[in-house]
Amino acid sequence: MIELNNVSFIYEKKTVFDELNLSIENGQNVAIFGDNGSGKSTLCNIIAGLYPVETGTVIIDGKSIGYWRKNKIPKVGILFQNPDNQFIRYRVIDEIELTFKYITKERRLFKTPADVVNYFKLEDVKNRLINTLSGGEKQKLALACVLSYEPEYLILDEPFAHLDPVNEYLIREILRGFRDELTIIEVSQKESDFIFDRYIYLSDGKIIFNGDYNGFTEFRSDNYDTNEIINWLKTKGINLPSEVQSEMEIIKYIRENYA
Amino acid sequence: MLKVDGVSFEANGKKILNNVSLEMRKGEVRGLLGPNGSGKTTLLDLIAGVKKPSGGSITVEGEIGYLFQFPERNIFAENVFDEIAFWARNKKMSQINDRVRNVMSSVRLDFNGFYKRSPFLLSYGEKRKVSIASILIGEPDLILFDEPDAGLSKKSMEDLIYTIREYSEKGISFLIVSHNLVFLSKITDKIDILLNGRVEFEGQFEECCELCRKLHYKPPFECELILNFPEIFTKFKNS
């Protein structure tokens, strides 16, 4: 379980969080939404221990991040939006081997670098230079390196932003294989077809929504705008009555009146 | 104003672009869609002159502004003001202060809140906005945008759509790479789809719905209507 108690954080003389409280239970798939600059990435970095907090505490499974780090136990993994920010070595295999150097914990799934190569099907690219990989391949390698540590919590900071739908699907499939042992926190801009257990909406460093899918759909429906579609239909000669607003109603109306 | 004629590009013995042709007129907004590795970024690199084609020719009338895929590669100055003002100063434009304020409000960045800050310490979406502003200020004839929408929230994306419309009305052409067909459908006159280094499709977004569905791109709602009621929308197209 991740618990943030009265966390305050100042970045560049600007208060990002003021007494923020949040708890995330194990096994949950959590999505974090919010406008640019609302504090999503900062929240990720705080949970991952990359940013020390000003006041308040961040507790992971009963202990502070510092405790886990001191004991070289990788509790939290983070996948950045730009995989280039994550790589240290030149060759694919060197990057994977690096993940075996500094961790003392007992591994279950990945006991050697070869296990990682096999699981993520990286055999063909393992001797290539990382900078010659395509965007999708790089993101897959970055995910392989993070999961190689076998973290219990995984933070995804918009890793799908530059991926096409097929590559996004492939990465999501890999993640599904870890569903039972991973708690996933995903920052996202796309309200995709993927359904999470919980939705958090940040605005100016404050949590203004925290709830499940149904609640979130309701929360977002206020902002929903079909004006563009209604105008487009007008150019096609279809004029909708003013009470027809949502996508479902539009489909129903066209089916009943035109098809 | 842009003519790409039979361009090919090879790297490490691999053919990345194969006989690609594309023409754009002044003020046109063109979308470029395609899976990872299909050659979209390479094509922009060739047009911008970052890379040289191994065959074919590229002609551009006027200046080019290029927004890279990752905004970290665009930025270099110590503060946001210098970053955005760079091109205007280089071109010896007048009233730099006003121009910076102007483009910052176009991308909805608060001038007083941001102008002194280091662009390197901003969030991903803010970095992108800064790099977009630093290109708009130069008022080039052609702007190449490599995934300008990635990492932008819904609200920022609406601002971006508005900005692109505004600048294209001034006669600036845009060539925009994106994975977001909903975004592209709102701004583009025409869409090109690249597949394995070839232009597989060129036309209105309304005509590419089926191909996009095959490539698993989430179609805009308009596409869903077209696919659901083909008889209605072909009827209107013909009439």
UniProtKB/TrEMBL annotation, chain A:
<dbReference type="InterPro" id="IPR015856">
    <property type="entry name" value="ABC_transpr_CbiO/EcfA_su"/>
</dbReference>
<dbReference type="InterPro" id="IPR017871">
    <property type="entry name" value="ABC_transporter-like_CS"/>
</dbReference>
<dbReference type="Pfam" id="PF00005">
    <property type="entry name" value="ABC_tran"/>
</dbReference>
<keyword id="KW-1278">Translocase</keyword>
<feature type="domain" description="ABC transporter">
    <location>
        <begin position="2"/>
        <end position="229"/>
    </location>
</feature>
<dbReference type="GO" id="GO:0042626">
    <property type="term" value="F:ATPase-coupled transmembrane transporter activity"/>
</dbReference>
<dbReference type="InterPro" id="IPR003439">
    <property type="entry name" value="ABC_transporter-like_ATP-bd"/>
</dbReference>
<keyword id="KW-1003">Cell membrane</keyword>
<dbReference type="GO" id="GO:0005524">
    <property type="term" value="F:ATP binding"/>
</dbReference>
<keyword id="KW-0472">Membrane</keyword>
<protein>
    <recommendedName>
        <fullName>ABC transporter domain-containing protein</fullName>
    </recommendedName>
</protein>
<dbReference type="InterPro" id="IPR027417">
    <property type="entry name" value="P-loop_NTPase"/>
</dbReference>
<dbReference type="GO" id="GO:0043190">
    <property type="term" value="C:ATP-binding cassette (ABC) transporter complex"/>
</dbReference>
<keyword id="KW-0067">ATP-binding</keyword>
<keyword id="KW-0547">Nucleotide-binding</keyword>
<dbReference type="InterPro" id="IPR003593">
    <property type="entry name" value="AAA+_ATPase"/>
</dbReference>
<dbReference type="InterPro" id="IPR050095">
    <property type="entry name" value="ECF_ABC_transporter_ATP-bd"/>
</dbReference>
<keyword id="KW-0813">Transport</keyword>
<dbReference type="GO" id="GO:0016887">
    <property type="term" value="F:ATP hydrolysis activity"/>
</dbReference>
From TrEMBL, chain B:
<dbReference type="InterPro" id="IPR015856">
    <property type="entry name" value="ABC_transpr_CbiO/EcfA_su"/>
</dbReference>
<dbReference type="Pfam" id="PF00005">
    <property type="entry name" value="ABC_tran"/>
</dbReference>
<dbReference type="InterPro" id="IPR050095">
    <property type="entry name" value="ECF_ABC_transporter_ATP-bd"/>
</dbReference>
<keyword id="KW-0813">Transport</keyword>
<feature type="domain" description="ABC transporter">
    <location>
        <begin position="2"/>
        <end position="221"/>
    </location>
</feature>
<keyword id="KW-1003">Cell membrane</keyword>
<keyword id="KW-0547">Nucleotide-binding</keyword>
<keyword id="KW-1278">Translocase</keyword>
<dbReference type="GO" id="GO:0042626">
    <property type="term" value="F:ATPase-coupled transmembrane transporter activity"/>
</dbReference>
<protein>
    <recommendedName>
        <fullName>ABC transporter domain-containing protein</fullName>
    </recommendedName>
</protein>
<dbReference type="InterPro" id="IPR003439">
    <property type="entry name" value="ABC_transporter-like_ATP-bd"/>
</dbReference>
<dbReference type="GO" id="GO:0016887">
    <property type="term" value="F:ATP hydrolysis activity"/>
</dbReference>
<dbReference type="InterPro" id="IPR027417">
    <property type="entry name" value="P-loop_NTPase"/>
</dbReference>
<dbReference type="GO" id="GO:0005524">
    <property type="term" value="F:ATP binding"/>
</dbReference>
<dbReference type="GO" id="GO:0043190">
    <property type="term" value="C:ATP-binding cassette (ABC) transporter complex"/>
</dbReference>
<dbReference type="InterPro" id="IPR003593">
    <property type="entry name" value="AAA+_ATPase"/>
</dbReference>
<keyword id="KW-0067">ATP-binding</keyword>
<dbReference type="InterPro" id="IPR017871">
    <property type="entry name" value="ABC_transporter-like_CS"/>
</dbReference>
<keyword id="KW-0472">Membrane</keyword>
